[in-house]
Design the sequence.
């Protein structure tokens, strides 16, 4: 094996922008986002993959950015909470979190939103139990999860109402299916008790 | 405005990641610091050598205990901590030295290069051992390790118990728990070029931190500024000064550069100040028709290494079980004890969650013995509005009876209690809690909260308050109160909170005091602004002040359609008529709502909230595994200023109580090392673990509260734990008197119960 001390350069796409970085080998995606790119919307709650506050989407799937090495991300697509709003408009999920009082202190909110965004992309009709299972890797200390799950369900219903306004063929086109395999991918964590 | 389900102020920033918490802030030239912590539960520091750490490239300063030799502590009477240990460490994790470097990683590495010469001392981890004769001294000036002892008796307890038809007793143990707010503590010290100090901190008590920084660092208070950004949760875990604030400040004073310290999650567990482990013994008497007679309580609280709020905790552990039910006589004896563990302090429901568990389970035992329905038993002992509790607290309002009705009806109590199949059960409990304390932490006659409001020709209204937004909705509360009084929409209000240079003093987000105190202050300030506007408009319109109405963003004159201007115009006209436009308001708590004995004021509040809960559980009789299926929570908050936020507080409180009941425990190895200082090992419930929570708002308005409002942030936690314990009894016949209610503990009790029958 050949060892090198030359800096590794990676190019990744973060929230639609190409970013080139030369991270130290131990630099995590969380550190890259917060310290190098100034995207502080992603939160550090534990730094060891326990709390879910740092959840971002990596190639569409939720990951704990504190456990992902930045140097490993050449060619990857990363989405953070800063990407959710379309211009000045909040996404339906963000709007539901605002309306339903789902963001009390707000510290778990970015991670929670990213997990829920991924869920609703792959399982747009996810029932309440599946919503709870999907966010089981995102700890919240304020809400008891009631209003968070309510908000995700409200966004789900709003999104599917939007879809039903368009012809059925268009609504289903280009959207991943609601198969159990898709669901399994995005259900991080689980009951830890 | 009041009573509307409006989105909370700042929610848009929270869902877009724009809100800046302390760790999101960076400043040019900022250094990062790390704190070296003790590996020993008790040891004397013989010497510290910092040369090797200082020599490391990138290191700018190292400080030790001798750099800050003044003691501090949240209560002026019990200051027993140093920012960095002087002479001795008293728990694993006690701060010893701090290093500032260009990166966090270098600071952490440099901390390992600090050489400490230890004289390891014997240590004590259990309060019983710490109280034993001949025990080692954790604080050299405190023999016996007793941090506080309170003994109070109201009425003649022994006579009442002797004359009772029945007396039930029980011994209870509440394991300690911690707050585990998702945001770790963080502080930034900034020595400014004008010779002042700014500290930005995740504190829920900026005013008290301001005072302590000044005292410990020997800088006049007018040269210290504390800024408190929005907090990522607190729950009492950020309600006193911590080592990192002093260290970040001192390192900035030395280096002249901003210095940030961010706790690791592990450090948060060692900083702790969470719920005290308590051993409690109760004797409670009643007549055969279910009238409570005397109650005798003994409490021993494990305080950990420092005093923290312990003096208050010791009082609260006895003072705050005396409502919602009437007692003829009551006595409590509470001791708080030093041990070589992280200090305990205030966690949501400070001091009273543990005895509430013991008291409500004892009541349930009484109900079983008397064969009286637990809800009916409580109905036979209600206190009324205007009554005083046995320890002298005046109840200006009381919605407890309605709380009982609501949970009884909505839970289907009558059809379920003692009627569900074995393995399923339903239980209930009640409680009350304070809406702030009648007196501040340091004795003074100044207001507990003050608010300034500025308005001008733009139409914009700015509310300045020292209150702390920690996620509970303070900024929304202030904005809604100001909007209500001025007749403007929420969008016209800007709220500035938590900056000691910019905002008038508020004592902090603790003891559920903010809506009561900052809310009243804000209301008065807004009323004074509104009065100025109406005075100016009345003059302009040549009418009386009473005829001028401020509503829906407009100033109008009753019955005159031609007299109708926007609020911006009204403010401009007021500026022209009366000069600048502003108002101030403050809140003094009443001093008539308590007795006159020593300690009578501790636990006294302007008003009290009430809660009743029913919990429904399922217990697997083979494995002991408990599942809480649903909790119904009826909470009397006086007036729900914003029902969505009130529900959020009720749900969050009940969740946290449920979590402590089933999962959480702050446990230590025999070496004094924490057993699992991580969010994996310290089990807090996920979305899959949580029960359904039904939040039911009861509004028994209080004359002291703004619009009748009382507290909601802490009260609804109290009954969750005993309601679950009582439901487990209904499901299985076992009495579970120790926390947490783990499957292993339940299974053991089920087996013992089977043998004894």
Sequence:
């Amino acid at each position: 094996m050949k060892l090198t001390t030359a800096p590794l350069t990676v190019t990744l796409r973060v929230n639609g922008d190409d970013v080139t970085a030369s991270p130290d080998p131990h630099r995590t995606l969380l550190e890259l986002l917060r310290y190098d790119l100034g995207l502080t919307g992603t939160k550090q709650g534990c730094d060891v993959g326990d709390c879910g506050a740092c959840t971002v989407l990596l190639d569409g799937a939720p990951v704990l950015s504190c456990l992902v090495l930045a140097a490993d991300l050449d060619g990857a697509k990363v989405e953070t909470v800063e990407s959710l709003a379309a211009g000045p408009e909040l996404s339906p999920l963000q709007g539901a979190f605002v309306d339903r009082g789902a963001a009390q202190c707000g510290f778990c909110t970015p991670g929670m939103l990213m997990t829920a965004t991924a869920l609703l992309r792959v399982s747009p009709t996810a029932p309440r139990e599946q919503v709870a299972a999907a966010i089981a890797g995102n700890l919240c200390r304020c809400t008891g999860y009631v209003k968070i799950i309510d908000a995700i369900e409200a966004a789900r219903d709003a999104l599917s109402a939007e879809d039903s306004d368009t012809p059925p063929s268009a609504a289903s086109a280009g959207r991943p299916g609601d198969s159990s395999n898709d669901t399994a991918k995005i259900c991080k964590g689980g009951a830890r008790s | 405005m009041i009573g509307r389900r409006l989105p909370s102020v700042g929610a848009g920033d929270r869902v877009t990641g724009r809100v800046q918490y302390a760790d999101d802030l960076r400043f040019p030239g900022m250094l990062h610091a790390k704190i070296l912590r003790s590996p020993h539960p008790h040891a004397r520091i013989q010497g510290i050598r910092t040369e090797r750490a200082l020599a490391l490239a990138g290191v700018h300063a190292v400080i030790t205990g001798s750099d800050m030799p003044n003691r501090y502590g949240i209560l002026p009477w019990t200051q027993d901590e140093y920012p960095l240990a002087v002479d001795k460490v008293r728990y694993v994790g006690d701060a010893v030295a701090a290093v500032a470097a260009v990166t966090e990683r270098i600071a952490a590495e440099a901390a390992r290069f600090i050489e400490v010469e230890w004289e390891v001392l014997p240590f004590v981890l259990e309060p019983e051992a710490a109280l034993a004769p001949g025990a080692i001294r954790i604080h050299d000036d405190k023999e016996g390790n007793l941090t506080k002892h309170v003994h109070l008796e109201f009425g003649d307890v022994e006579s009442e118990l002797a004359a009772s038809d029945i007396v039930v007793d029980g011994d209870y143990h509440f394991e300690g728990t911690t707050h585990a707010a998702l945001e770790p503590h963080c502080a930034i010290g900034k020595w400014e070029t004008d010779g002042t100090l700014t500290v930005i901190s995740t504190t829920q008590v900026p005013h008290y931190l301001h005072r302590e920084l000044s005292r410990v660092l020997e800088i006049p208070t007018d040269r210290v500024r504390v800024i408190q950004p929005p907090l990522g949760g607190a729950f009492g875990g950020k309600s006193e000064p911590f080592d990192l604030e002093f260290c970040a400040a001192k390192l900035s004073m030395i280096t002249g550069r901003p210095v940030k310290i961010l706790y690791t999650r592990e450090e948060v567990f060692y900083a702790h100040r969470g719920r005290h482990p308590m051993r409690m013994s109760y004797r409670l008497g009643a007549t055969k028709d279910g009238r409570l007679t005397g109650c005798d309580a003994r409490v021993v609280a494990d305080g950990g290494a420092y005093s923290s709020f312990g003096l208050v905790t010791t009082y609260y552990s006895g003072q705050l079980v005396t409502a919602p039910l009437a007692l003829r006589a009551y006595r409590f004896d509470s001791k708080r004890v030093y041990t070589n563990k992280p200090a305990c302090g205030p966690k949501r429901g400070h001091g009273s969650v543990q005895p509430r568990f013991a008291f409500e389970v004892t009541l349930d035992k009484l109900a079983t013995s008397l064969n009286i329905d637990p809800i009916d038993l409580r109905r036979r002992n209600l206190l009324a509005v205007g009554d005083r509790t046995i320890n002298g607290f005046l109840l200006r309002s009381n919605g407890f009876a309605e709380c009982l009705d609501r949970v009884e009806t909505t839970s289907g109590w009558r059809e379920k209690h003692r009627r569900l199949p074995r393995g399923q059960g339903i239980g209930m409990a009640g409680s009350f809690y304070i809406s702030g304390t009648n007196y501040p932490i340091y004795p003074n006659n100044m207001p507990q909260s003050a608010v300034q409001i500025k308005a001008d020709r733009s139409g914009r209204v700015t509310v300045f308050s020292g209150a702390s937004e920690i996620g509970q909705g303070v900024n929304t509360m202030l904005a809604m109160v100001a909007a209500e009084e001025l007749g403007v929409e929420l969008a016209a209000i800007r709220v500035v909170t938590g900056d000691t240079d910019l905002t008038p003093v508020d004592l902090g987000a603790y003891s559920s005091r903010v809506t009561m105190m900052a809310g009243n202050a804000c209301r008065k300030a807004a009323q004074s602004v509104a009065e100025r506007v109406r005075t100016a408009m009345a003059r302009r319109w040549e009418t009386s002040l009473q005829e001028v109405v401020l509503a829906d963003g407009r100033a109008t004159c009753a019955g005159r359609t031609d007299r109708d201007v926007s609020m911006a115009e009204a403010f401009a006209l007021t500026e022209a008529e009366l000069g600048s436009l502003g108002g101030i308001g403050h809140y003094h708590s009443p001093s008539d709502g308590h007795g006159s004995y020593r300690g009578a004021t501790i636990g006294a509040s302007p008003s009290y909230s009430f809660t009743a809960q029913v919990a429904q559980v399922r217990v697997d009789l083979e494995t002991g595994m408990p599942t809480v299926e649903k909790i119904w929570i009826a909470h009397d908050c006086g007036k729900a200023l914003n029902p969505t936020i009130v529900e959020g507080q009720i749900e969050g409180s009940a969740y946290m109580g449920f979590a402590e009941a089933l999962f959480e425990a702050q446990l230590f190895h025999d070496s004094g090392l924490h057993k699992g200082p991580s969010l994996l090992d310290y089990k807090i419930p996920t979305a899959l673990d949580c029960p359904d929570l039904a939040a039911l708002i009861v509004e028994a308005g209080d004359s002291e509260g703004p619009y009748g409002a009382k507290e909601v942030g802490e009260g609804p936690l109290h009954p969750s734990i005993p309601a679950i314990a009582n439901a487990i009894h209904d499901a299985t016949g076992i009495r579970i008197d120790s926390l947490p209610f783990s499957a292993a503990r339940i299974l053991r009790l089920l087996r013992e119960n089977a043998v004894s029958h």
Q: What stands out?
A: The beta strands of chain A are 10-14, 17-21, 55-58, 61-64, 77-79. The helical segments of chain A are 29-36, 92-99, 109-122, 128-134, 146-165, 168-172, 180-186.
